[in-house]
UniProtKB/TrEMBL annotation, chain A:
Domain Exoribonuclease phosphorolytic: 81-215, 246-310
Protein name: Exosome component 7
Provenance organism: Amazona collaria (yellow-billed parrot)
One Pfam family in the UniProt entry: RNase_PH_C
Top-level taxon: Eukaryota
GO molecular function terms listed in the Swiss-Prot or TrEMBL record: mRNA 3'-UTR AU-rich region binding
GO biological process, one term: exonucleolytic trimming to generate mature 3'-end of 5.8S rRNA from tricistronic rRNA transcript (SSU-rRNA, 5.8S rRNA, LSU-rRNA)
Compartments reported by the entry: Cytoplasm; Nucleus, Nucleolus
Family that this chain belongs to: Belongs to the RNase PH family.
One GO location term (cellular component): cytoplasmic exosome (RNase complex)
Entry keywords, A to Z: Acetylation, Cytoplasm, Exosome, Nucleus, RNA-binding, rRNA processing
Summary of subunit composition and partner proteins: Component of the RNA exosome core complex (Exo-9), composed of EXOSC1, EXOSC2, EXOSC3, EXOSC4, EXOSC5, EXOSC6, EXOSC7, EXOSC8 and EXOSC9; within the complex interacts with EXOSC2 and EXOSC4. The catalytically inactive RNA exosome core complex (Exo-9) associates with the catalytic subunit EXOSC10/RRP6. Exo-9 may associate with DIS3 to form the nucleolar exosome complex, or DIS3L to form the cytoplasmic exosome complex. Exo-9 is formed by a hexameric base ring consisting of the heterodimers EXOSC4-EXOSC9, EXOSC5-EXOSC8 and EXOSC6-EXOSC7, and a cap ring consisting of EXOSC1, EXOSC2 and EXOSC3.
Classification of source organism: Eukaryota, Metazoa, Chordata, Craniata, Vertebrata
From TrEMBL, chain B:
UniProt family annotation: Belongs to the RRP4 family.
Record CDD domains: KH-I_Rrp4_eukar, S1_Rrp4
Primary location class: cytoplasm
Sorted UniProt keywords: Cytoplasm, Exosome, Nucleus, Phosphoprotein, RNA-binding, rRNA processing
InterPro entries reported in the protein's UniProt record: Exosome_cplx_N_dom, Exosome_RNA_bind1/RRP40/RRP4, KH_dom_type_1, KH_dom_type_1_sf, NA-bd_OB-fold, S1_RRP4
Transmembrane helix among keywords: no
Annotated ranges, domain Exosome complex component N-terminal: 27-64
Limits of the RRP4 S1 domain: 76-148
Protein name in the entry: Exosome complex component RRP4
Any one Gene Ontology molecular-function term assigned to this protein's record: RNA binding
Pfam families, per database record: ECR1_N, KH_6, S1_RRP4
Subunit description: Component of the RNA exosome core complex (Exo-9), composed of EXOSC1, EXOSC2, EXOSC3, EXOSC4, EXOSC5, EXOSC6, EXOSC7, EXOSC8 and EXOSC9; within the complex interacts with EXOSC4 and EXOSC7. The catalytically inactive RNA exosome core complex (Exo-9) associates with the catalytic subunit EXOSC10/RRP6. Exo-9 may associate with DIS3 to form the nucleolar exosome complex, or DIS3L to form the cytoplasmic exosome complex. Exo-9 is formed by a hexameric base ring consisting of the heterodimers EXOSC4-EXOSC9, EXOSC5-EXOSC8 and EXOSC6-EXOSC7, and a cap ring consisting of EXOSC1, EXOSC2 and EXOSC3.
Location in the cell: Cytoplasm; Nucleus, Nucleolus
Amino acid sequence: MSERRATLRRLSCSNGASHCSRLLEGTAASRERRKRKGLSAVRREEAGSMAAVVLSEPEKLYIVHGVQEDLRVDGRGCEDYRCAEVETDVVSNTSGSARVKLGNTDILVGVKAEMGTPKIEKPDEGYLEFCVDCSANATPEFEGRGGEELGTEITSTFYTVFSSENSVDLKSLCINPREHCWVLYVDVLLLVCGGNLFDAISIAVKAALFNTRIPKVRVLEDEEGSKEIELSDDPYDCIRLNVENVPLIVTLSKIGYRHVVDATLEEEACSLASLLVSVTSKGALTSIKKVGRGSLDPESIFEMMETGKKVGKALHVALQKILDEEESLGTSRQKVGFLG
Amino acid sequence: MAAVTMRLPVPRKPAVVNAPRGPEKHLVAPGDTITTDTGYMRGHGTYVEDDKLIASVAGVVERVNKLICVRALNTRYNGEVGDVVVGRITEVQQKRWKVETYSRLDSVLLLSSINLPGGELRRRSIEDELAMRDCLQEGDLISAEVQSVFTDGALSLHTRSLKYGKLSQGVLIQVSPSLVKRQKTHFHDLPCGASVILGNNGYIWIYPTSEQRDEETGGFITNLEPVSMSDREVISRVRNCIVALVTHKLMLFDTSILYCYEASLPHQVQKLVVVTLFCAVGGNGKASSVAEVRW
C-alpha cells in the first residue's frame, strides 16, 4: 500500500484546466458565486478552452444516476466506445492522412514527411512534430485565437505521449547521421467537437502514421565527398512506418463514483476530473495525465488505469482490424472523403 | 466488458421512401435559376442577376401570386405564434429571462409571462424580481409557447398554461427544426413508457412518464428522484430511434417515433447507435410502415 502511494507521488500529475467541469456542488453555493461575480465573469471562468454544453441540474442528475447503473444516455455501458468511422488516404498532397469520426467528433490528420537536420542530442534519429489546429468550424469559440489554448494543450499532450523511445522507430527515419533525416510533421485538424477529443485524435494519428508512405532515398557520394540525395523514380517505392508500438490515448472521466470511457459533451459537463492514459497495443502505459478541477482518489486512479489498459488493448485490436481491412481492399476501395 | 466497434465509411445513398408524396416540390440549390420571367417580385432567399431570378439558399420554392421566395430547409428556427418550443435559459435580466431556442436571436421570457408558484394571480413586485433566479436559473430547460414575435424576429414566450414550465430529468436532443412535423399537440405520452415533447424549434425532450397526471403544480417543482432502470432503457431506445430517424431525414412525429421504436425492439439498445443497423431499421422497418401513415 505504501509503495503504491510512493509510486503516485513520483508520478507527476499535471492539472490542465482544459475541461469545463461544472461541479455538482450545491446549487446554493453556485448561486452565491454567480450573484457575487456577475454572470459573464463566471461564464468566462467556467468556459475554459473546450467547447462545452450547459446543462440543467436535473439533466446532470439523470446522467450521473445512469452512469451509476451502467446505462448511459445512449444505451452504452461505462466501458463502451461509440462506433468510430476510420478512413485513410483522404488528403492527396500528404504522405499519409486519416479521418476519424467518433460519434459527433470529427478529426482530420495529415502527415507530411520532409527532409531536415537531426537534433543535436539524437544525431541518428528522425523526429515527429505535432501541430493541432482547432478550426472555427467546430465551434464559434475557436474563431481567431480562441482555439489556441486547447490546441497547445493537445500538442503538448501528444509530445508527452510520443516521448517514449519505442513508440515510433525513429532510427528508420535517419538518412545520413548528423546531416539528413526525415521529419514527420503531423498536423491535426479539429472539424467538429463532440466530446472525447484526445481519443479520437490519437486514433486518427495512428491511422495516419499507418498510412504514411515515405519515399525511398539513396545517398550518393561524389569524389569531393559532397553527398547527393537521390529520390527513387517509382512513386510506389516507399517505406512504411511500423505502428505496432504507437500508443492510443484513453480518456476516463470520473462521473459520480464511477468512471466512463468516451464521454460525450454532456457527460464531460458532469465529470469533475478525468484521467488521460496512453496505452500501447501490448497494454503498456506510456504516460498519464490528469485534467479537470476535481480531485481523484488514489484508489480510483488505479482502477481507472486498469480499465484504461483493458479498453486500450481492445481499441488497438479494433483499429488494427479496420486498417488491415481497408488495406486489403486496395485500389478497389471506394473513397468516400468529405462529399460522400 | 469493453466493446469497441469501428467501421469503414459507407457512401451515402439517396433515401428511397415508398410513401405517397404530395405535389412535386420545386427544390433549388444556391445559384439555381428559378425563372427567367421578369414579372415576378423577389422574396426571401432570391436575388436578381442578368434578368434571371436566382436562389440564394437551398430549399423549396414558394410562390404566392407574383411573389417568389425560397424557404430554406436547413435553417435556424423561425418562430410562429402558437408554436411549442423547448428552450434553455441563458441569461437572467431585469424582469425577463433570455432563452436560447436555436433561432437567430435569443427569445425572451418576461417575468409577467410565467405562472407564480402556487398559481396566484397578481402583479409582479420587486420581491418577485429579486427572486427570479430561484425560479429559473441559467442552464434550466423550459417548455413554453410563442406568444408573439418582435419586429426584429425575436420571440416572446410564455408558460401561462400548467402543461408548460421547467423540465426536470430527461434527455434533450437537438435536431433541425424542419424535421419536426406541425401537429395539434406536441406533448406525447408514448405507449412504450416514455413521454416526449417535440419542440417546433428542433429541441426534443424525452422524459419518464410521471404517474401523477393531474398534479397541476405549474411546472416549477423538479422531481429529483432516481429514474428506474426500465424507464431509462425505454428513454435510451427512444433517443436512439429519434437519432436514426434524423440521420435518414425522416419527419418526426409521435407515430413515426413509435413505429421506429417497435422496429428496433429486436436489437439491443447500444447496437442501435451503429449506423449499419440504422439502414436496416430505416430501410425495412420504416419505409413500409411510413407508407401506412397519412402525410
